[in-house]
Specification:
86 residues, mainly alpha
Length: 86
Amino acid sequence: MNVDITNREIAIEELIVDAVNKAIQVAQHQFIESGWMTLKDGAKYAGVSYNTFIKFRVMGLKVCEVDGVKRVSRKEIDSFLERHSF
């Protein structure tokens, strides 16, 4: 009887882990598609070094920070570069 319960518990756990992994993959894909990226990727997108990108922050580039995780949107980078173009 305990073996059946253990096997069922293992099967349920595997189903839960698979479902969570799939949900994480979908969320990551949606996050990437939303246009949000790391500061390093933002620097690449803008075509500047990471240090220059950090200077952009001082100049007013808006960055989202949640629980220490920083992200920047493509729209914000495009808008910032447009504002500073002449």
